[in-house]
Design a protein that fits this description.
CATH architecture: Alpha-Beta Barrel
Radius of gyration: 17 Å
Number of strands: 8
Strand content: 15-25%
Distance between the termini: 11 Å
Oligomer: single chain
């Protein structure tokens, strides 16, 4: 059995001064759910406060991006070494918003993911299709390309530090959600594609999250599916009660 993992992606929300209160509220509301991995991925400036607030709780702190170089002239970026030093444990890589707004490509996703894993952090690597790609019948092509390029040279051993998040781009922040059957279909495709890269046995151990507007009201139905091992949560992660509701569903799945 793969342990469920619910990770919050705070995006560009929550000030450093507000971080501890939100983390502590989440920790208190979810303290009984020891069978779920709970992660808060925050803006870089919030990471130290999140790490401190997570101490003594079951909640782990993560970041929303990391550069592939150890150091250098990369203004505005953050290195894996900085995140390790700050105490982060997870890093989101290749989120659709990074691809859409900041020029992220499958190739840079690959470089970032490998750097994160090499640093001992867990990479949450995002894949997913736009509405146009889905309607054009390119779903399989897009997912397979993102997986094959984004996870190039990621080994079976590396998969211990790998989580994949499926985010149908058309369902992020729109209120639309893939049906459980639609989501399961793509999660199964992701696992099958991963099996070709690292072997079927290893692919069965990798957790795949659903990242398209999962909420307390639909989490149980999504998480009941065979290949859906958790959620990468946006808006609902900013409200402790909503986030806890999703985690409760994961604990019972």
């Amino acid at each position: 059995m793969r342990k469920k993992i619910i990770a919050g992606n705070w995006k560009m929300n929550v000030k450093p001064s507000e971080t501890a209160a939100l983390v502590k509220a989440i920790a208190e509301a979810t303290k009984d759910y020891t069978n779920v991995d709970i992660v808060c991925c925050t803006p870089a400036i919030d990471v130290p406060a999140a790490v401190e607030a997570c101490k003594g709780t079951q909640v782990k702190a993560g970041a929303e991006n990391a550069h592939w170089e150890a150091q250098g002239a990369y203004t505005g970026e953050i290195s894996t070494g900085m995140l390790v030093d700050a105490g982060a444990e997870y890093v989101i890589i290749g989120h659709s918003e990074r691809r859409q707004y900041f020029g992220e490509t499958d190739e840079t996703v690959n470089k970032r993911a490998r750097a994160v894993i090499a640093a001992g952090l867990t990479a949450i690597v995002c894949v997913g299709e736009t509405l146009e790609e889905r309607e054009a019948g390119k779903l399989n092509e897009v997912i397979e390309r993102q997986m094959n390029v984004g996870l190039k040279d990621v080994t079976a051993a590396d998969c211990a530090k790998l989580v994949i998040a499926y985010e149908p781009v058309w369902a992020i922040g729109t209120g639309k959600t893939a049906t459980p059957d639609q989501a399961q279909e793509v999660h199964a495709l992701i696992r099958a594609t991963l099996a070709k890269l690292v072997g079927a046995e290893t692919a069965e151990t990798v957790r795949i999250q659903y990242g398209g507007s999962m909420k307390p009201g639909n989490a149980a139905e999504l998480l009941a599916k065979k290949d859906i091992d958790g959620g990468l949560i946006g808006g609902a992660a900013l409200k402790a009660a909503d986030f806890a509701g999703i985690i409760a569903a994961a604990a019972q799945a």
